[in-house]
Amino acid sequence: MNHVMPSNLAAAPAVPKKEPGPWLRAWRKLKRNRKGMFGLFVVLLFVAMALFAPYLSPYDPIEASWSAIRKAPTSAHWFGTDELGRDVLARVIWGARASLLAGVVSVAISLLTGVTIGMLAGFLGGTVDSLISRATDAFLACPFLILAIALAAFLGPSLTNAMIAIGVSASPIFVRLTRAQVLQVKVEDYVEAARAVGCHPFRIAVSHILPNVTAPLIVQASLAIASAVIAEASLSFLGLGQQPPDPSWGSMLNTAKNFMDTAPWMAVWPGLAIFVLVLSFNLLGDGLRDALDPKLKRS
After folding, report:
1. Which of 166, 141, 143 is closest to 234 using CA atoms?
2. Distance between CA atoms of 126 and 274, rounded to whole angstroms?
3. What is the CA radius of gyration of the chain?
4. What is the three-class DSSP state of 199?
5. 205: nearest Cα among 131, 133, 125, 105
6. How far apart are CA 266 and CA 74, in angstroms?
7. Any idea of the CA torsion for 31, 36, 37, 42, to the nearest 10 degrees?
8. pTM here?
9. What is the pLDDT of residues 113-143, one digit of tens each?
10. Three-state SS for 127?
């Protein structure tokens, strides 16, 4: 006897595969970028070193030892000691806090001011756009580091003032980038549709335009942190950043320049730390740029 399968069970409808979101696709592309993942890994190592500095540091970074002045690297002091007998490894570990804090906080200041002003210029247009654009051009005419040094000298030597100076000096880059992105996005069909149904301009700017200009801002922010780390080290080298005896890679290099012949390790380790951290942020920024580029093939 033949059994006939009911027609409603003969062929179950295929369930469509859920399309991954843009951020998940970006993460998948970033994971396939070896240089970008290496940069992310090293950055996370430095972040962990800064967060857990009290537990990783073998000595007090500001405690002097007159019996261990400018000692070469040994099993007791892996990176050697400085002109006051302080452990260089401990000061490098604690110095990561100043560099990362300056990088993150100063870029946050740049993002807050630059994105806000850039959104106003691009969204409002007209006279507002012209005034903001001319002011931005005037700021960009002055080299970034020179402007940061001038502002830091005006505000006074401290890490907080250095972060403010770096943040303000880097803001014009974000103003120009945000303005350009807003001008491109605000003519899209979905923005015109939001205007047509009577959405408030503020809601259009925050809900429809801002989320669609974040990708290039994230990439620029990651690259700007690398520049901010170098700027903080430069200001500390000049005595305008982190003040002694608190450790900073820039101030360590300033001291080490007087002992290059007799104690080169005093300059090697903080200089190497700056180099590796800046390189890692640049590699991460390049990886994010490739991962967030919508023109590349989806994964």
Report:
1. 166
2. 43
3. 26
4. coil
5. 125
6. 14
7. -160
8. 0.87
9. 999 999 999 888 889 999 999 999 999 998 9
10. helix
